[in-house]
Design a protein that fits this description.
212 residues; mainly alpha; 2 domains; 10 helices; 83% helix
């Protein structure tokens, strides 16, 4: 129960991070949001057993804490960039050290998938990697040149809306594409099944990719 509550709290903290930065800048306490995130990474660094992951967490903690002193507003705005960069690298890494990330999730439900579906999973992984790369560029431009309101709206709202649009569009395309290759309808995972699969197997795949 404590683990679930902790995960919910951390997820909510990252979800509302742009809003906290926005309030911090408006109220003159820019350091507040980065300090909260630094405390999360500090806890994760202490708990991490993998040496490489532990070093990465400590590096983030140091960078965030330095950001509470120097270049406060810029460092605070760069957290979404780091998140999108981490996601891009996480997805992109599996394109070179296969199987691609999407295929890893699919294989939990369908161990024996045909080559055409393997190719589809690879293309889907490339699509999400490109999406995160686009977000990195957009977040950098907004952090450096746009008003704080624009940055907060994109990083706190638009990124999630665009992610949802991509998921729905892919789900619709999936049905047309799979039926074209004569894949039985019962084998086409629903959005609910896909999300359930990610929740159940996400942690296993995360550690598998991190250690590869």
């Amino acid at each position: 129960m404590q683990t679930i509550l902790r995960s919910v709290f951390i997820s909510a903290l990252f979800l509302f991070y742009p809003y906290l930065v926005y309030l911090g800048i408006k109220q003159g306490i820019v350091w507040f949001a980065p300090t909260l995130i630094a405390s999360v990474y500090l806890y994760q660094a202490i708990q991490a057993k993998n040496k490489k992951i532990k070093q990465q967490k400590w590096a983030i903690v140091c960078a965030l804490l330095l950001g509470t002193i120097f270049f406060q507003e810029v460092i605070a705005k760069f957290m979404p960039i780091f998140i999108q960069l981490s996601l891009m690298l996480f997805f992109g890494k599996t394109l070179f050290k296969g199987p691609p990330l999407i295929e890893r999730f699919v294989r939990f439900e369908f161990p024996d998938i045909p080559p055409v579906i393997q190719q589809y999973c690879r293309h889907l992984t490339i699509m999400w990697t490109s999406f995160f790369a686009f977000n990195i560029i957009a977040c950098i431009v907004l952090a450096l040149f746009a008003p704080i309101e624009w940055w907060a709206i994109y990083t706190g709202v638009m990124i999630f809306m665009l992610s949802g649009v991509l998921m729905v569009a892919e789900y619709i395309w999936r049905h047309f594409y799979f039926r074209r290759i004569d894949l039985p309808h019962k084998e086409i995972p629903s959005v609910r099944d896909s999300i359930k699969n990610m929740i159940i197997n996400g942690k296993t795949i995360w550690f598998d990719v991190q250690e590869s």
